[in-house]
Amino acid sequence: MTPAVLAAPEAVASDAAGVEIPTHWYNLLADLPFPIPPDLPPRERAGGGAAFRPQVPLELVRQSLSKQPLVVIPEPIRELYALWRPTPLRRAARLEAALGTPARIYYKYEGVNVSGSHKLNTAVAQAYYYQRAGVKRLTTGTGAGQWGTALAVACHLFGLECKVYMVGTSYRQKPYRKVAMQMFGAQVASSPSPQTQAGRELLARDPDGHGNLALAIAEALEEALSRDDTRFCIGSGEPYSILHQTVMGEEARQQLAALGEQPDVVLGSLGAGSNFGGIAFPFLRGNLAGESSVRCVSVEPAACPKLTRGVYAYDYTDSSGITPLEKMYTLGHSFAPTDIHAGGLRYHACSKLISALRHHDLIEAVAYQQTEVFRSGLLFGQTEGIVPAPESAHAVHGAVVEALRAKEEGTSPAILICLSGHGYFDMSAYEAFMDGRLKDVQVTDEEIARSLAELPVVDE
Amino acid sequence: MLPDRDTVAEAVKRVLVVEARVNVPPQELRDDEPLNGDLLRINSLAFVGLIISLEEALDATFEDALFMNNEFRTVGDLVDVLHGEIAGAAGAA
């Protein structure tokens, strides 16, 4: 691989209003008035007593356990952020007009970097810390491909090798995501793959298995554990990845303040939680301090409704059943979401941090079907000139629902959404929607009960 | 004063039984007990949280390279690496 050049820009960028890239990430854990339930050891003896190598750099975990609410963004990361930050914050005036709403809709657009989504905010930070820890090669699992692309870019920037297990459905639906990752030197495997035991076992049971994010993560972890030169990393869910994403909310807060605005409601789509947490946490900070009452609303697909129909319980973070147990809203680690086009949201559970907020009623959660989500995504593209990624279209639809409700009620709230990425790799999904081939998914209570029956039994 | 190996071992075992949530007196944990075996079940993902807890218990800050470049199988492996690091850091100071 061609060595990357880490050229420092002359100056850290600012936007037209003079808002600069934040100097700190916001650590919500430091401000929480309750503890997050501790992780529990795995139920099974997965390692058989064999030797192992640690997977995650201490500094990543240490920073997310800090008692300080503000964590300094190291200058090398901030200099790389300047390649695409500050990202635009715009008012969706033409969407408002199309809806005939008195609401003011603002969107924070994170699709302006080479990977096309917000995932690069934590990918760059993680690659920085892994490189400093002496790691040469990383593996990961990716759903729709945004995280895989972002990690491929970040690894290239820091001279690391990268191997990505991509959920098979997305691998086939979005072949150019694979090309984008390969452009930055990454190896890409379709999951389930014959390259790992977890993949082979699934293929033996179901040769046409389309896979899911939990399996892709399990395959990536298995490879990392089998090679001395490789470590595993993950794009969403862990407190440190949400911490890195708060650069979005911090920046948006400053940009709105420069406009004299304060949002009444903040919406983000919900996969494992880094997108939603990244935009919402800096606003929750004011709520926790009693200085504001911003509604923070997560938007998830009805096909994978963990916060709206899951349970708050200890579960595995992937399908392997060997990870430590985390307390979170989950549909059960064996829940296999139906194929939908928002592949990045097809994760059985939600970050323990976001889950705890939901458990304590500090955030709201809604779920929508994919046809209504695509209808709003298409409308956003037609009015605002940006095609949202299917994941981001969930937040757009959430804003549309809020704006139409405001119209009915005669109110004029300020609505902020995170438009986490563009949808230019997702044209087949928009085509399916326009052709009427996109179907809604009805998840039955029985399906959820079946997977929840496999939750590990723990003594809390 | 620089902690000797026994002091480090005592701290490691005290933290281990808490992190692994096992009902065993720390002093009964043997040095050759596997970290990821029938009793402790500390795997590579849980290990990092364990080290952070040990930093607090030992009032020390450990470098990533120390762990990323080492394999760990038993309680004794971890004690040896931490004791070596603490002693080395004190010698260099």
Can you describe this structure?
The complex is a heterodimer of chains A (460) and B (93). In chain A, 40% of the residues lie in helices and 15% in strands. Chain A has 460 residues and is α/β, with parallel strands linked by helices. In chain A, the strands form four sheets. In chain A, strands 3-4-14-9-10-13 form a six-stranded mixed β-sheet, with helices on both faces. In chain A, strands 7-6-5-8 form a four-stranded parallel β-sheet, with helices on both faces. Chain A starts with 23 loop residues before the first strand and ends in an 8-residue tail after the last helix. Residues 1-12 of chain A have low confidence and may be disordered. By secondary structure, chain B is an all-alpha fold. In chain B, 57% of the residues lie in helices and 0% in strands. Chain B contains four helices and no strands. In chain B, helix 1 crosses helix 2 and helix 1 (5-19) crosses helix 4 (75-92). The radius of gyration of chain B is 12 Å and the shape is globular. The two termini of chain B are 13 Å apart. In chain B, 35% of the residues are buried. The chains are: A alpha/beta (460), B mainly alpha (93). The A-B interface holds A 39-59, 61-62, 65, 129, 132-135, 221, 225, 231, 322-324 and B 19-21, 34-38, 40-49, 51-52, 55, 62-65, 67-73, 77.
